[in-house]
Amino acid sequence: MNPTDYPVHVAAADGSDADARLPSQLSPDEFRVLASVGVSRAVLPGEELFKRGEDAQSMFLVDTGEVRLCFDDGLADKLLGPGQYFGELAVFIGRHQRFARAVAETPGVLYEITQDAFQALIDQEPAHVARFMRRSFAYLVAGEHQLVQSLRRRNEDLLQTLDTLRQTRSELTVAQQLVRSDDLTGLANRRGLYRYLDELGHQPLAGHRLALLLVDIDHFKQINDRSGHLAGDAALRAIAEEVRRMAGPLELPCRLGGDEFALVLRVADRGELANRALGLLAAVRSLRLPSLGESRLSVSVGGAFCADPGGWAAWYSEADRALYAAKRQGGDAWRLDE
Ligand SMILES: Nc1nc2c(ncn2[C@@H]2O[C@H](COP(=O)(O)OP(=O)(O)OP(=O)(O)O)[C@@H](O)[C@H]2O)c(=O)[nH]1
Questions:
Q1: Domain GGDEF, which positions (predicted)?
Q2: Which secondary structure element, helix H or strand E, spans residue 108, and what is its range?
């Protein structure tokens, strides 16, 4: 066999080939020549020949028994048997740190060849040594190539996993948005409102006051009864649109449930809050929905300023009191709880 034709078999980097054997099998002739400059040494199972990271000064031939090379870093171990060699870089390139740990797997006999002994062999048997080195380098290059391939495959797997994670994250974001919004109107729901209030606690208000407007449709039950549930839904969507239009970019329009909506606003003062509430009353009053025929829509609005966004219950009940004051007034009106 041509020296470079030796089948090269390197254990897979994923450790799937734990019992891989190096094909670095020496011919009896090569073994004899190399062993002639080595020192024979008997080893017992578990005996450590060198550690990973240790300064390398000699190479080894396995005469009998087996030796395990442990690379760690997720690479599979390699098991070497009679006629195989390892640690050869120590005699090729001189001092370097060992890549692996070598441990005797079974009782056996090894030949240890030092750098000086190898140097002497180069002078005595240049043709043999040249052939041996050529074959060893071919093996090392092929091993390196397989390692690069395996790292590339691993990298591709990682990129794919990353893609899947990104997709899952965006699906999660969509799912979170759905969980926090109302199906019928697309406005935030109660869960969305609580989340918004949580986040509000950490944001500066820049000279504004936080205010809540509670909005409830007047006589909505009658609308459903007279025009049907679908017409009622259309009315809810149309009013939701007006509530949404009334909200600025940092403000939250939401549907709390049934025919009740809420707007969390940032206003300068009472006057601005009144204008926003009156604007909403007027916008709803001017709605004309074909599905409602001659029936007109109106809402009642209750407002309250907020002392603490964490104290939602108190804030809500103040706005609710104002809302019912507006209802008692006959609806289509707004009141502020002061
Ligand atoms: N079409 C429709 N109706 C709903 C929906 N959710 C709740 N409703 C109805 O909204 C109505 C609310 O009625 P009430 O709470 O009595 O209020 P109201 O008739 O507006 O009375 P006032 O508030 O006192 O003016 C009920 O008849 C509910 O069935 C919905 O998603 N779609």
A1: 208-338
A2: strand 108-114
